[in-house]
Structure formats: C-alpha cells, structure tokens
C-alpha cells in the first residue's frame, strides 16, 4: 500500500492541533514514552515486544526530527 499526503492528514492535524505545530514538543513526548517503557513491570511485555515498540517510537521521533530540520533549512 502506498501512502499519499492526504492519508497523513489526521496525523498532521494532530501535530497542529495538539502541539501547535511544535515538532520538538512531539519528540520530547516520544522520548518520555520510550523512557517510561523501561519502568513497566517486566511481565507486562516480552523483551522483544518492548524493543519493537521502542524501535517504532524512535523511528517516529527520527522522522519528526527530519521534518523539523528540513523545515528550518528551507526557512
């Protein structure tokens, strides 16, 4: 399946409405979520599940940071 910009509209709306377009704010919340995963009881998730979730969150954070850097380079 190929995504189009229109498909990402709900995500973009979330960034704008909940974070006022402040991409660094989103990355800080993602960092906190990743940090909190380490304090969940060890029997809540397997080690592999924990690593996979943290990996997805880190990839999302890196994508948001890339957008932020590209926006600032164009300004």
Report on the structure:
The chain has 75 residues and is mainly α. It has one domain (5-74). It is 72% helix and 0% strand. It contains three helices and no strands. It has helices at residues 9-19, 23-37, 47-74. Helix 2 (23-37) packs antiparallel against helix 3. The model has no long low-confidence stretch (mean pLDDT 88).
Radius of gyration, in Å, reads 15 Å
Number of domains: 1
Which whole number gives the mean pLDDT? 88
Helical fraction equals over 70%
The major β-sheet equals: none
- Which secondary-structure class do the elements indicate? mainly alpha
Count of runs of 4 or more consecutive helical residues: 3
**What is the element string, with H for helices and E for strands?**
HHH
Strand content: under 5%
- Overall morphology: globular
Total beta-strand segments: 0
Distance between the termini: 32 Å
Detail the poorly predicted runs. none
């Amino acid at each position: 399946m190929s995504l189009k910009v229109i498909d990402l509209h709900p995500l973009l709306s979330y960034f704008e409405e909940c974070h006022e377009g402040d991409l660094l704010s989103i990355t800080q919340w993602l960092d906190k979520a990743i940090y909190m995963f380490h304090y969940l009881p060890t029997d809540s998730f397997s080690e592999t599940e924990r690593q996979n979730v943290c990996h997805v969150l880190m990839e999302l954070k890196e994508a948001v940071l890339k957008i932020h850097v590209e926006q600032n380079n164009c300004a």
